[in-house]
Amino acid sequence: MSGKRAPSIVILTGAGISKESGLDTFRDADGIWARVRIEDVATPEAFARDPGRVHAFYNARREKLTGGAIVPNAAHTALARLEAEWPGEVFLVTQNIDDLHERAGSTNLLHMHGELLKVRCTACGEMMEWRASLAVEDTCSACGRGGGLRPHVVWFGEMPFEMEHIFETLSDCAMFVSIGTSGNVYPAAGFVSHARQSGTVHTAELNLEPSEGASIFAETVYGPATEVVPDFVDRVLREGISALG
Ligand code: APR
Fold first, then answer.
1. N or C: which end of the chain has fewer CB within 10 A?
2. pLDDT 10s digit of each residue in the chain, 245 long?
3. Which atom of ligand 1 is the closest one to the Cα of 95?
4. Which residues line ligand 1 (CB under 6 A)?
5. Closest CA to 238 of 107, 106, 82, 83
6. Dihedral over alpha carbons 129, 105, 9, 18 (to 10 degrees)
7. How far is residue 51's CA from residue 149's CA, in Å, rounded to a whole number?
8. Would the CA dihedral through 109, 112, 117, 118 be positive or negative?
9. CA distance linking residue 89 with residue 107, whole number of Å
10. Is 194 a catalytic residue?
């Protein structure tokens, strides 16, 4: 048994991977930010100013996600297969707050922007699974206080979760793959540059169209995620990483 560890893969996903499951992206012409202002629903100031409006925004998205019509697609399933069949670690960092990666079977998964189906108490920090609507008057099951429950979602101006761990995995991986993200929002948009600093890493972008950071990637594949992601995973499992690019 050689001491050489099997090469690890880090994957970043964005809203584009869930689009064909029926969830909107943010910056496409029909995206969420074309209908709602970030300043009104996705900042700490918005929540302080009008918590009811912020709850309504996330309640509508939570109701859609849990309503039964939204299910993982072939791209989510392909990434779960890669994790199951690749001999090395496959670490999936998602910017998405939906639970489609989990439902597709991915387990080595980190929601850097939080999760729509969790809420957090701003008074005591307790985290709770929450699939129903959330209202200002709802009380925390741990400390009993009302008025302090918020979506466990990272808002603009807040720090994404587990950044140190993410940068460590990027520095140590053999391949970084970015899927379904426009490369507009940092720190996620900077992951490809961080990965490339560590030298021998293959980088690939799989997206519907070139992202802001497209020129930084060694390999780019454009098309709908349900087509390009399963094909890419098949190729990696068949040929390994070195054959790519
Ligand atoms: N298949 C693959 N990619 C697609 C598809 C599809 N079917 N449909 C759209 N895309 C691509 C778009 O071309 C775009 O590049 O997905 C990307 C989605 O980009 P955004 O809408 O900006 O979403 P994302 O990159 O995930 O946003 C990052 O910004 O608003 C914040 O916190 C929010 O996590 C989000 C972050």
1. N
2. 445 678 999 999 999 999 999 999 999 999 999 999 999 999 999 999 999 999 999 999 999 999 999 999 999 999 999 999 999 999 999 999 999 999 999 999 999 999 999 999 999 999 999 999 999 999 999 999 999 999 999 999 999 999 999 999 999 999 999 999 999 999 999 999 999 998 789 999 999 999 999 999 999 999 999 999 999 999 999 999 876 65
3. 34
4. 14-16, 19-20, 25-28, 31, 95, 113, 180-182, 184-185, 207-209, 211, 224-225
5. 82
6. -70
7. 10
8. positive
9. 11
10. no
Closest CA to 178 of 6, 10, 5: 10
- Written as one letter, the residue type at 135 is A
Catalytic residue among 55, 76, 101, 113: 113
Please name the amino acid found at residue 219: E
End-to-end CA, the chain = 29
Tokens representing residue 183 in the block: 């490369």
Residue 205 C-alpha from the chain's centroid: 15
- With beta carbons less than 8 A apart as the criterion, state whether 221 and 42 touch: no
What SS3 state is found at 175? Answer: strand
Determine the Cα–Cα distance for residues 212 and 66; give it in Å rounded to an integer. 32
**Amino acid letter for position 58:** Y
b/e burial code for range 144-161 (CB count within 10 A of at least 16 → b): eeeebbbbbbbbeeeebb
The pTM of this model reads 0.97
Beta-bridged to residue 119, according to DSSP, are: 128, 151
